[in-house]
Write a structure and sequence with these properties.
This protein has 577 residues and is mainly β. It has no helices and 50 strands. The chain has two domains: 220 residues, TolB, C-terminal domain (Neuraminidase, 6 Propeller); 227 residues.
Length: 577
């Protein structure tokens, strides 16, 4: 496809990783992606995961890319058990890569009745087919339908008025007698591929903002299910620096997947953008010879499926590939936040919608909100961390009751560390597009290349945190002026810290597909998996960092061998340093 905080219950149980899918497939790329469909020249497109994350449903065009007739097919993640569940029958049957498989049902668009494309629903094995719409006129089509996870009787879809007119976002309400409402006007923009957030409160879609040209960007909007339903609060998620299409929700709605040429790539790859439109995206696939599109995130948080074909030839058939999901670590870095100065990290969450900071057992305060990224730290050298935020849109740093200043821009990653060993944390930014490190009032230099992840740490035990990068494509760790080595791979998230208490930083990785934590030269353990957020820190105050995760779906903080605590909600960001 293109264009209240809960009382602690202490336990020492280990969170065991779920069994990773047995990926065999037909072919493996250098970025770790595995092809799970074959039989070219048939074109396999639009993968969506089953609710249990064990299978993928996709559209297979029998005569090439977007060349019907087409059928709906299920396949296991290892490429076995391929089963046609909706035969082509001389018609087109097309699903979408997000929202088309939910609660034992699938939905898709088809012209199987002989006229324009309509919306259909069936059981997940292809039985009990229901035609849900029947609209007049041969030129209008209803395509790209997706269920509301919170209410499957609500289905968003793409309204196509003609072969040339702008597309619009439509809503089908089965519980309102099949009422159809067009949510966007089609006057100024071309809107396509809608999907629901997990809570049913927002709609994601791609929008062409310039008539007569190709300028696709990803938007979200709040939806009000009234009479009539309506959209409001539009947000441009991806900006205007790239062509961004094929959107779908991911990472518990914290991020949005897109096929994008972000960074002026010659071929679109898969990226994960912040759903709040802040910070740099996570690059998921790395290929200069394949065009990657139609990404889909597995419900268990371990995999991303996508369609891909070699070269930019639009007629080239696609295959379905899967790749491990990379950790969502734009907000998370290793090391705890000590907001009362007792030497032990405090469990802290930041709730962007209200600007709430909640520190378990200590305080609640309101500071920042919206697009702000939490950046607590010791801004004045008194030995106690303070509440602080970075506002990407303006480059504002604000440390509560200490200071406000402007440093950086929307594309920079803010990193607060003690870079000169004076006991005070120094505001710094890493500009991924150029490799620029800028440390406020200290220095500026270039270290790294696009798509490197910054990993500053005290790797010498001197109290100074030199700049460092992790290059996922090769597993390279490079610490400026200290060392270079290879450890890990593209789907790993780097979380350096002092894991053995010797005051010297250790390279460490978290692999969400299996829950593996690997600390270089020390240990390998399994703890957490999928969409869990790593939150390692010295929770016991003994001088060594403990392995820990935050599970947003339940508000669980689990620290290996120490404790399990419920504190927070799915919309909260766990605050570490």
């Amino acid at each position: 496809m293109r264009i209240g905080l809960i009382f602690i219950l202490i336990s020492f149980a280990v969170i065991s990783p779920a069994t990773a899918a047995p990926v065999a497939g037909f072919e493996t790329r250098s970025d770790g992606a595995v092809r799970i469909t074959g039989a070219l020249p048939r074109s396999c497109q639009n993968p969506v995961f089953s609710p249990d994350s064990r299978e993928v449903l996709f559209t297979r065009f029998t005569n090439g890319y977007n060349r019907g007739p087409s059928e709906l097919v299920r396949v296991s993640l290892d490429g076995t058990g391929e089963t046609v569940i909706i035969p082509a029958a001389d018609s087109d049957n097309v699903n979408v890569p997000y929202g088309s498989w939910s609660a034992g049902k699938i939905c898709w668009a088809s012209d199987r009745a002989g006229g324009a494309e309509e919306i259909y629903r069936a059981d997940e094995n292809g039985s009990n087919i229901e035609r849900l719409t029947d609209h007049p006129g041969p030129t209008v089509s209803y395509i790209e339908p997706g269920f509301n996870p919170a209410d499957p009787d609500k289905i968003v879809f793409e309204y196509v008025p003609s072969d040339t007119g702008p597309h619009r976002i439509g809503l089908l309400e089965l519980d309102e007698g099949g009422r159809i409402t067009l949510l966007t006007s089609g006057m100024d923009y071309d809107d396509r591929l809608p999907s629901w957030s997990l809570d049913g409160a927002r709609i994601l879609f791609q929008r062409n903002t310039e008539s007569g040209t190709e300028n696709w960007e990803i938007y979200s909007a709040d939806i009000t299910l009234g009479n009539p339903p309506s959209l409001s609060g539009y947000r441009n998620i991806t900006g205007v620096t790239s062509q961004d299409t094929d959107n779908s929700w991911a990472y518990q709605d914290r991020r949005v997947l897109s096929s994008s040429d972000y960074g002026n790539l010659p071929m679109p790859n898969i990226f994960a953008f912040s759903s709040r439109g802040v910070g740099r995206p996570i690059r998921i696939t790395f290929s200069g010879t394949y065009e990657d599109g139609a990404p889909s995130y597995s419900p268990d948080g371990r995999w991303i499926a996508f369609e891909s074909h070699s070269t930019e030839d639009e007629d080239s058939p696609s295959a379905i590939w899967i790749i491990p999901a990379r950790p969502d670590n734009i907000f998370i870095t290793a090391g705890g936040t000590d907001l009362n100065g007792d030497g032990t990290p405090d469990l802290t969450i930041f709730r962007p919608a209200q600007g709430l900071w909640a520190v378990r057992g200590i305080t609640r305060a309101y500071f920042g909100g919206g697009e702000d990224l939490p950046r607590p730290g010791d801004y004045n050298g008194d030995g106690t961390d303070g509440i602080g935020i970075f506002r990407p849109g303006s480059g504002l740093w604000a440390a509560r009751d200490v200071s406000r200043f402007y440093f950086g821009s929307v594309s920079d990653q803010p990193i607060l560390r003690d870079y000169n060993g004076d006991g005070t944390d120094d505001p710094a930014i890493f500009r991924w597009s150029t490799g620029l490190w800028a440390i406020r009032n200290i220095t500026r230099f270039y270290f790294g290349v696009p798509d490197d992840q910054p990993v500053p740490g005290d790797f010498t035990g001197s109290g100074v945190h030199p700049a460092g990068i992790f290059r996922g494509e090769t597993g390279l760790w490079a610490i400026r002026g200290v060392t270079r080595f290879y450890f890990g791979r593209g789907s790993d998230g780097p979380f350096p810290g002092d894991y053995n208490g010797d005051t010297t930083g250790d390279a460490a990785l978290y692999r969400p597909v299996s829950g593996l934590w690997a600390v270089r030269g020390l240990t390998r353990v399994y703890f957490g998996a999928g969409s869990d957020l790593p939150v390692p820190a010295d929770y016991r105050g003994g001088g060594s960092d403990d392995i820990g995760i935050f599970r947003g779906s339940s508000g669980l903080w689990a620290v290996r061998g120490v404790t399990r605590v419920y504190f927070g909600s799915p919309s909260d960001i766990p605050v570490t340093r």
